[in-house]
Specification:
- By secondary structure, the protein is of the alpha/beta class.
- The chain is built from 14 helices and 13 strands.
- Strand 2, helix 3 and strand 3 form a beta-alpha-beta unit.
- The longest helix is centred in the N-terminal third of the chain and has 17 residues.
Length: about 375
């Protein structure tokens, strides 16, 4: 499902990605070969939650499809969703280890809490691919997006929306969960763009990324700052943006301030169409899922990752993890057609339903 446009973007950004964060050339560390799987490959897939639409709608089916393609239909996926429960995810991982899957693909609820299960997998000779979030413990590979760049893209977009009014009031920052290492990277990237250019009135780390928690935080910010003082909201993802916008509407904002997002969820794209949400960050889930499947199958076969991973990343516990970082795109009403529609994520019909049709017509989305 890799699209030509995404591939071109990946090529164009290869140099900057190689220099990102703690990434280094993968030649700095050659990963150890694993014993090849005996018979059909079984991949244990552990996803973190079902609050965000992407995991069940995109990640799971995309990884399943790619594993099937890479194994001529013989590869098997054993799947579990932790529903934002780190203890449950550890139990799920331990069960898969006990059942002797050939490789684990783990998107951790809590990057620290999963480390003991990663260690158990290592001791059992089962390689682990950290997916989307950089899990701690002796992981063998990692793929995600350039997460600091996500925050920078969001920060730049908010500044663009505010224009010369950037210092005329205060913004609210709604970051993700402290248990998610990506959230810290989004926040760092956003601060690198926003600090000194806006006044940050309130800032929150949102428990479990839940929209209802973002909604409650936003209500508190409105009460503390006064609605006349709030000129913009940095929201780390689309789900929280929905809760934030509900709070803004409930407080009686005549005109909604610009609100950022991430994940290009359908509801987020529809809010962008109507102007309720200023932007989201589009991330190519097909490309990320494809890389994860390639890594998993290669490791299960005992193969090295030299042809897949061209950089390495350091986690808090493991140095030189072979990695692939996928580029991201700022999604606004101006490029919906060239991103999520062109890449087959949504159709115009899915976006432009009912109350969204007028907005779609206004921006030429037909």
């Amino acid at each position: 499902m890799r699209r030509a446009a995404v591939a071109a973007a990946a090529t164009a950004m290869a140099v900057s990605l190689a220099a990102c964060g703690s990434a280094k050339e993968s030649g700095d560390k050659a990963e150890e070969s694993k014993p090849a799987a005996d018979g059909p490959i079984t991949v244990g897939l552990l996803l973190p939650e079902n609050q965000t639409a992407r995991y069940e709608k995109f990640d799971k089916p995309l990884i399943e499809k790619k594993v099937s393609e890479l194994t001529d239909g013989t590869g098997k996926i054993v799947y579990a969703n932790a529903k934002q429960d780190a203890t449950l995810q550890s139990q799920q991982a331990d069960t898969m280890i006990t059942n002797k899957v050939d490789v684990l693909v783990v998107d951790a609820v809590d990057s620290k809490a999963i480390a003991s299960s990663v260690k158990k997998a290592k001791e059992a000779g089962i390689p682990v691919v950290a997916y989307d979030r950089l899990a701690e413990g002796p992981i063998d590979a990692y793929t995600s997006f350039d997460n600091e760049e996500v925050g920078r893209v969001q920060g730049k977009a908010l500044l663009e929306a505010l224009g010369d009014k950037a210092k005329s009031g205060q913004i609210v920052m709604m970051n993700g969960a402290v248990t998610d290492p990506n959230a810290a990277m989004f926040k760092k990237g956003a601060h690198s763009e926003l600090d000194g250019k806006v006044n940050i009135g309130k800032e929150y780390d949102t428990k479990e990324w839940k929209p209802e928690n973002a909604n409650a935080n936003m209500e508190g910010a409105i009460s503390a700052l006064g609605k006349d003082k709030i000129i913009g909201v940095y929201s780390a993802n689309d789900g929280m943006a929905g809760g934030i916008i509900t709070a803004l509407k409930g407080a009686g904002f005549a005109t909604l301030p610009p609100v950022t997002g991430q994940d290009a969820e359908l509801a987020g794209v529809q809010r962008i169409v109507t102007g309720e949400q200023f932007m989201s960050v589009y991330k190519s889930y097909p490309q990320e899922a494809s890389v994860a499947a390639e890594m998993a199958v290669a490791l299960a076969k005992g193969e090295k990752l030299d042809s897949i991973a061209k950089t390495t990343v350091d986690s808090a516990t493991t140095k030189g993890v072979p990695s692939v970082l996928v580029p991201v795109v700022s999604l606004t009403k101006d490029n919906i057609n060239d991103t999520v529609i062109k890449d087959g994520i949504y159709t115009v019909g899915e976006i432009c339903t009912g109350k969204y049709k007028a907005g779609c017509d206004a921006i030429g989305l037909k």
